[in-house]
Amino acid sequence: MQEKTPIEVVSHMMDHDLFSQWLGIEVIEISEGTSKIKMLIREEMINGFGIIHGGIAFSLADSAFAFACNNRNVLSVALDTAINFTKPVHVGDTLIAEAKEIHNGRSTGLYRVEITNQHAHLVAIFKGTCFRTNKKLIN
To answer: Is 30 exposed, middle or buried (0-12, 13-18, 19+ CB in 10 A)?
Structure first.
C-alpha cells in the first residue's frame, strides 16, 4: 500500500472539515510537519469592540496546527493549546497562519503557529501539543 503524501492528507482533511470551509480557509503550502493557510476576515467575524473575535484567530491557528500534526497520515489530536494576541485584526484583513513543528515524538508533537496579517505584522502566536494515536487518518 502506497503512503499518502502530506498534501493528500490535508486535502482529505479539508474535504471533510466543514468548519474550516465555513471560515474560508485556503491551503497555501503543506510539507511534512508544517502547514501554511490563509483566510479573509468577514464582517460576521467581528466582536462587539469592532475587531476580530479571538475565537476566529484561534480557529485559524488550530486548523494550521491540525494540518501540520496530521499530515504524516497519523491521526493526532490536541492535548494542549494556548494563544497570545499581539495586534487587533479588522474586517477585510487577510490572516496567514504558518505552523511549524518543534518536536515530532512517537506519541506527542509540539507546534508553533504564527499568524500574520497582509502587511506581515504578527497578530497572534499559538502553541499546540498533540497526541499521536496509532491510527491512520486515511486508510
So the answer is: buried
The answer to whether residue 93 sits within a structural domain is: yes
Report how many domains make up the chain. 1
Give a yes or no: residue 1 inside a domain: no
Give the residue numbers spanning the domain of 62. 6-136
- For residue 22, give every residue at least 6 positions away whose Cβ sits within 8 Å of its Cβ, in sequence order, or none: none
CATH of the domain at 60: 3.10.129.10
The band of 2, judged by pLDDT with boundaries at 50, 70 and 90, is confident
d(C-alpha 93, C-alpha 42), whole Å? 8
Instruction: Indicate whether this model's pTM tops 0.85.
Output: yes
Backbone angles phi, psi at 49, to 5 degrees: -95, 0
* Distance from C-alpha of 51 to C-alpha of 88, rounded to nearest angstrom: 6
pLDDT digits (tens, 9 = 90+) for 29-75: 999 999 999 999 999 999 999 999 999 999 999 999 999 999 999 99
Helices (H), the chain: 6-16, 18-23, 54-70
**What percent of the residues of the chain are helix, what percent strand, and what percent coil, each to the nearest 5?**
25, 45, 30
